[in-house]
Amino acid sequence: MANKFSITFYGGTGSVTGANFLLETEEGGEKHRVLIDCGLEQSGRICPPENFAPFAYDPRSIEALFVTHGHLDHVGRIGKLVKDGFTGKIYSTPPTKGIAELIMLDSLGVMEKERRGTDLPPLYEPADVEQAMKQWQTFGYHDVLRLGNLQAVFRDAGHILGSAMIEFTLAGKKILFTGDIGNSPMPLLPDTEKITDIDYLLMESVYGDRNHEKRSERSEIMKGIIKDTMQAGGTLMIPAFSVERTQELLFEIENMMEHSEIPLVPVFVDSPLAIQVTEVYKKYNDYFKKDVAATVRESDGAIFKFPQLQFTKTTEESKAITHSGARKIVIAGSGMSNGGRILHHEKANLPDPHSTLLLAGYQVAGTLGRIIQDGAKHVRIMGENVAVRAKVAVVTGYSGHKDSDHLVEFVEDTAGTVKKVFVAMGEPKSSLFLVQRLRDYVGVDAVAPVAGEKIEINL
Ligand SMILES: [Zn+2]
């Protein structure tokens, strides 16, 4: 009997977001039908209308869903999948389950706001998240998960806490889905695992056409910005994403304070989601890289805990920050200033020439963060005209994704065995550029599938 598999690219093609792949396998007459990721498509809005369309497959026909990591563009439609009848198991690492639950519940609120004035039904409801959690089982890295003759193993992707590449083995051949792969070395996480024996590879390409500034330089830049702002007697505002970026910043700031490299000023984490996610990071600190995990153990688990650090959960606590003196560091969401508590701090401090706004993440066109980054001298925040006299600093070395050179290196490691590479999860120009580089420099058969395309492989 023929052994074969197919991958259908239902999402995450021609776009960074909306990862959703269907893997169908057949070996010796035994068939399996599993999904890899079920993410939200995003384009300026958190949840644009295309997410509400029915799935292109019957969710009831799916045996299991494998989740690479807890970001919204990889988990955001799981609630809908369950609501639409999916009753199979969901598999991920333990931190991914913890982060995914928080992200799914948190995005409900934002989606609700976006839905106002439209006739769209809720994409999913809290009960669907609760149901998803009941169907969810966790496995550690390298544990072998068996669905009959289809085997799966999670390998460390080094992108956010618990992030995994999923390696399937079928009829002796290995098929790897990378999810997002980290910009190693990362401050908290182990490096992306080296893979050397993969036959078929489906990979991300967010930065397929670009390289990052050096990671080593970014801490120095950060140190300089903190020192200058505190010397000037201003506030340092950092709009940050809740997962990984906030925890990385806290870890680095704590280190700088411990080594007296920056003044001991108050540090506020002013984001309910970031505070909850930080708890997941504390709980699963054995997923950090070895030296960080050892430091945590030596200090009795006191990571993300130093005298200057305050987590502000309530609105009252958040408002009180404004009156707590000028010299301080405020980390708040959202990362692109298109909502969240950072807006209150920007409104209060952007007019102050002694303060600084530090942009440490990619700012999508049209967001307030991008408008300020592009040099606007006046902006509208919550209906008010706000003058921008504060300094605006941009640090790009904080990306959580491998850049073009490192994506190529990643494939080179398995060039001896790989038969085909599917390049996905990137803007078209980025994916196509990477496809060309892989063909020219690594000499592998690489393609960038289009949305809805089904590729069949006989083994
Ligand atoms: Zn991600």
From TrEMBL:
Residues 17-210 form the Metallo-beta-lactamase domain. PANTHER family: CLEAVAGE AND POLYADENYLATION SPECIFICITY FACTOR FAMILY MEMBER, INTEGRATOR COMPLEX SUBUNIT 11. GO terms for molecular function: hydrolase activity; RNA endonuclease activity. Residues 246-372 form the Beta-Casp domain. It comes from Candidatus Vogelbacteria bacterium RIFOXYD1_FULL_44_32. InterPro entries: Beta_Casp (IPR022712), MBL (IPR050698), Metallo-B-lactamas (IPR001279), RibonucZ/Hydroxyglut_hydro (IPR036866), RMMBL (IPR011108). Pfam families: Beta-Casp (PF10996), Lactamase_B (PF00753), RMMBL (PF07521). Keywords: Hydrolase. This is MBL fold hydrolase.
